[in-house]
Design brief:
Rossmann fold; 2 domains; six-stranded mixed sheet; six-stranded parallel sheet
Length: 351
């Protein structure tokens, strides 16, 4: 793999590789674009099969964060971190303090927060070494409830587009992944009266969803073939692919996971099948909005109201996609890139 060609493919500005083997730390930080402001993106702790897989993931995720910030209307760039290793380890302090030093080396160009495999407690260790971290205790805290709320509002927008009403009562929603975001999303959906079918690799999470939300459950590989109205992926990415498209039986794909399309052509395939797809970085922007609010001392209510704007943003994207005859993912990219291009051409009129 030619690393520099890999970076140039999507215009990444900087990638930092940091290793402290005696502490068990191997990390990669990617800054995609800082036109709108300092890059922000969470830290993902995952047992990648190879360094190349980790690099590919961090590059895709950081680009998604650029577009997410742009389309959410906040002044942040896009970045992301990955730590390669077993996220179940209990010996976490030195791993995350080492990560904090890697973040600090970027001099404020990148802010991190929790993500898959990490927690607010982990970010407290990062905070020991850098101030460039958000989502900590005393700050905005866990962004999952706001992420889930924004996703819920996005699903309502999809319902409005598909059935002429945002109401979800009686709609059958399949939820893949019952982590923090998936759990809170189920709570919002259950409160409105949606019927839930869920899956997760953690049986305790499934038991909780069955007890609290009356959810049905299926195996991880069976969720794609469930005959339902809406599929809400809330786990890892690349779950809309050649294999899953063969069995998918829904009218809407709208969930909180990042990078849901394995390839851009899978967005075209959904479009061709008239399955409404909510571009992932649009519908799951609530977490970013939450931590942006922390940087600017927003109240929790203000952050929630801003996340609620995802409803109107998605409807605008759906209309643009129809006008231009393109998949929703393409329309979203165009809206996000247009804002970045316009800001790039602003002339500074003060010293």
């Amino acid at each position: 793999m030619n690393v520099f060609e890999h970076l140039a493919e999507h215009g990444h500005e900087q990638v930092v590789f940091w290793s402290e083997p005696e502490l068990g730390y191997r990390g990669i930080i990617a800054i995609h674009d800082s036109t709108l402001g300092p890059a922000l993106g969470g830290t993902r702790f995952w047992n990648y099969s190879s360094d190349q897989e980790a690099l590919t993931d961090v590059l895709r995720l950081s680009q998604g964060m650029t577009y997410k910030a742009s389309i959410a209307g906040v002044n942040l760039g896009g970045g992301k971190s990955v730590i390669i290793g077993d996220n179940k380890t209990r010996d976490r302090e030195m791993i995350f303090r080492a990560h904090g030093r890697a973040v600090e080396s970027l001099g404020g160009r990148y802010y991190t927060a929790e993500d898959v495999g990490t927690s607010v407690d982990d970010m407290e260790f990062v905070r020991m070494e850098t101030d460039s971290v958000v989502g900590i205790y005393g700050g905005s805290g866990d962004p999952s409830p706001i992420t889930a709320y924004g996703t819920y509002q996005g699903i309502r927008a999809c319902a409005q587009r598909t059935w002429g009403s945002p109401a979800l009562e009686g709609k059958h929603v399949t939820v893949q992944g019952l982590g923090n975001v998936g759990y809170h999303l189920c709570a919002f959906l259950h409160e409105e009266g949606a019927r839930l079918t869920v899956t997760d690799i953690d049986q305790d999470r499934i038991a909780r969803a069955r007890e609290e939300f009356g959810a049905q459950s299926v195996g991880p590989d069976e969720i794609y073939a469930v005959d339902a109205d809406i599929f809400a992926p809330c786990a890892l990415g690349a779950i809309v692919n050649d294999d899953t498209l063969k069995v998918l039986k829904v009218q809407i794909v709208a969930g909180a996971a990042n990078n849901q399309l394995a390839e851009p052509r899978h967005g075209q395939e959904l479009h061709s099948r008239k399955v409404l797809y909510a571009p992932d970085y649009v519908i799951n922007a609530g977490g970013l909005i939450n931590v942006y609010g922390e940087l600017h001392d927003w109240s929790a209510d203000r952050s929630k109201r801003k996340a609620g704007e995802i409803y109107a943003t998605l409807l605008r994207i759906f209309e643009l996609a129809e006008e231009e005859g393109v998949p929703n993912a393409v329309a979203a990219d165009r809206v996000a890139q247009a804002r970045i291009d316009k800001v790039r051409h602003l002339s500074r009129s003060y010293l």
